[in-house]
Amino acid sequence: MSRVGKEPIIIPENVKVSIHKNKVIVTGIKGTLEHILNDGISAKLIDNTIVVTRISDEKKYKSLHGLNRSLINNMVIGVSKGYLKKLMIIGTGYKAVVKGKWLVLSLGFSHDIYFEIPEGIDVSLEKIGRAEASVIPGLQVVIDLSSYDKELLGSVSAAIRGIRPPEPYKGKGIRYAEEHVRKKAGKIAGGVTG
Do residues 43 and 72 lie in contact, with contact meaning Cβ atoms separated by under 8 Å? Predict the structure, then answer.
């Protein structure tokens, strides 16, 4: 069996799960998510756990087994605890402001970027003190994105990062909090004349 797929998913007390044929609906304090299982994959409620099974040991069913189990587990964690992503804006004069359903970014372009915040995503901004700014030079703002939907959160944070990805010379741009940017040396003054 798949090492990931065979693990049962434990349902927390504040989460309700219902399974109708190939549709799994998970409801918790944060919201409701649903997932349609792939062909050949099934899920059953046994006591206080969800067990995901497959019809055969063919390669395609083995890979889908672990995938579907992980997606359902992410849904259970999302509706009970939620997920958080942090994005750091690094660069002198770079700013971010939340105006209603818009995240307004000033990133050195000739105009501000208006990014529409989708439903299900909460955005907050952290002010940077001198201690954090001394550790990461040029750090201006930290954007906290939170949601109960892990897939939506990942795509929104990637879209925001894609507006101004970190450049390799000074590291200016938007990056994930856990991301390490390898810097290039740049041009060296002087050199060989010929």
Answer: yes
φ, ψ for residue 111, nearest 5 deg: -145, 160
pLDDT in tens, 12-62: 988 999 999 889 999 999 999 999 999 889 999 988 899 999 998 888 888
Q: Can you say how many angstroms the Cα of residue 10 is from the centroid of all Cα atoms in its chain? A: 23
pLDDT digits (tens, 9 = 90+) for 93-109: 888 999 999 999 999 89
| Strands annotated E in 11-94 | 16-20, 23-27, 32-36, 41-46, 49-54, 83-90
CA 158 to chain centre: 8
Q: Taking Cα atoms as reference points, which of 85, 66, 75, 78 lies closest to residue 154?
A: 85
Handedness of CA 155, 108, 95, 131 (dihedral sign): positive
Q: What is the pTM of this model?
A: 0.83
